[in-house]
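FAQ: What does a ligand-bound record look like?

Like this one, built around adenosine-5'-diphosphate:
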Amino acid sequence: MSAMLPLQQPARRRPRWLRRPFKWSRRWSLWVLLVALLVTMLGTLVWLAGRYEASLVQARLERDTAEIVADIHNGLARNIQSLQALPSDERSADIWRLQASELLRQRREIVRIERRDDSLETLQVDETPFRRSVFARLGRAGVEPDTSQACNTALRLKGPAYSNSYFVPQADGLGLELLELCLPLMADGRLTGYTVATYSLQNILTELVGQQLARGQGLSFTEADGTRLAIAGMPARGSRIYNAQQLLDLPGTKLVVRMDSWRGTPDFFPNMLTALVSAMALALIAVLLMLGRDMRRRLKVERDLAEALAFRKAMEDSLVTGLRARDLQGRITYVNPAFCQMVGVEAKELLDHKFPSPYWPPELAGVYQDRQAIRLASNNLPQGGFESVFMRRDGTRFPVLIIEAPLINASGKHTGWMSAIVDISEQRRVEEMSRASQDRLQATARLAMVGEMASLLSHELNQPLAAISSYATGSLNLLDDAGRSPGGLSADLRVALKRISEQAERAGKVIKSVHDFVRRREQVREAVAPRALLDAIMPLISLQARKLSVSLVTDVAPNCEAVLCDRTMVEQVLLNLSRNGMQAMQAQGKKLAATERLLTLRARPAAGDKRGWVEFSVTDHGVGIPPEVAEKLFTPFFTTKVEGMGLGLSLCRTVIEQHGGHLEFEPAQPRGTQFRFTLPSGSLPAPQTGLSHPTTVRPTTSELSS
Ligand code: ADP
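The answer part, i.e. the structure of the complex:
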């Protein structure tokens, strides 16, 4: 059946991710890819940040170098002006000397100044006071070609010109890179001589720009192949050295100025930007880890959820109780296979169906729908469930027990109703069978009791029959003597026949009471006065009472209301209890004084919370009930009597409980036992006493909702 029940509700369908679980390997490869991408991205970011930082440093270095080259240019230009200011004629030789030595003192980059004539013959020479003469060791002659090259260029350019730099070894084993500046001296458009200044490249660097150099920066003049000619500052060695080169374009020569810069000791975070990017990268990795952890938790929850769903499905499929969920409008949103099987309708049909539902019996559909509307509107659910009648597809009706509970969703909102439905037709069948066997049992018990009474009956009937016989004989005698005394016949005969009729009536009553008791009748509840109940059993118990010399006392309170009961049953209970009481007193034998052989049957209104009920009691002064007997008193077939059946008390209790009452007992004073039971008075509403008794007043199907 379940194969043809594709449940339509979305919740029953396994979600896609449950049906085709995400492959672990695929999930892992995605994670690996994500991490790899992230690491690559972060690496690139850090690298780019480093590159950017380096390019900034490089650009600054380039700018600094360009400024330094400009400074050198300016310095040299200033020197040219100072050199041009030197007197050039022969008369001012002393002034020249003074001014030249002053200039040499101020400009340490100039190591020598010469005044030459127009054929480059040296006229005057002055050298820097700050060091020994640079040409002291090798003489000036060796470098004369450089000087004349500069002067030729100067002549051609008609302005100051420089020679190529050259190296002059010194006495201390080191050497100096020098540069000649030749300044043609003109007077009236005619060349009168030259001023030649010798520069130390080293000093150009230290004097013109040395102060600007920061720690870790080095400045040098280099050749095209990178050979250093002169150097200022102390560039550190290492991997993080930046350098920039600029061409110092001087008339007649070109020099390359190279600046090296070293950016501090290398550390893990070389600069702010990289540090920032790295911090962000670390934060990103942390977030990634947290995400990973979150994902792991989610996966676990997913797995748990899948297991819970599978468990729920297995549970639903194995249930024999029908489950049905409805929304607030009463439409079915879910049914389990057991429900479909119960009503013989497919789930799809049930879910799509409009009112009336296919399992409502047509004759009750209107009532069900009205009642459902009222109940759903008032949000009022019957406590403990209610009974109803459903219809199978083949039209057969069957009783069901429905238990409903509100459906509350995850956010606490009331979204509908969940019902559990139990098919109680089998239960009803069993109840019916048990009722029938109960009836048979009670009839048997009655017959057994009648059997017991048979001897008493014969004795009882003996008296009226003997009386009838003697009256009949007397009447015959009277008829025989009729001739002798005709006057008195009719009066005597009338008396005798009246007696015969009375006695016959008495015998008839005895037989009828037994007949009434034994006859099985329809079980109906009626209001009966307590007195009538006691009177009805009196003829029967008085037979036994007389035999056992027991006095019967009946006491009915005047304000006692009629009780609503099955008369025959209650009479049997009273009879049973009275008979037991008398037998208990008989068991006492001679120990019991004649005045104590009393059986009291009492009826009075019940007190306390049983207001509106009537309490009956049967009190004897017999042997009493020992505790070991008390334990099993109401157990069927328990008896202490040789010929007892042990059914009396168990049946009595069943009967009383079927009426909604309660049967109990307690010791009587000074001895004996009192049995008490309660019955509802006619003024009370009929009691609801469960499912086990056929006369229980049940709600009719029309009173029930669907
Ligand atoms: P039965 O009378 O056939 O034995 P019952 O169910 O009526 O079956 O009683 C069960 C037992 O309870 C009796 O055998 C008796 O021992 C005990 N019993 C019942 N009523 C009394 C009573 N009034 N006093 C003492 N014992 C009693």
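Follow-up question: can I read anything off the structure? Yes, for example: The first strand starts at residue 110 and ends at 117.
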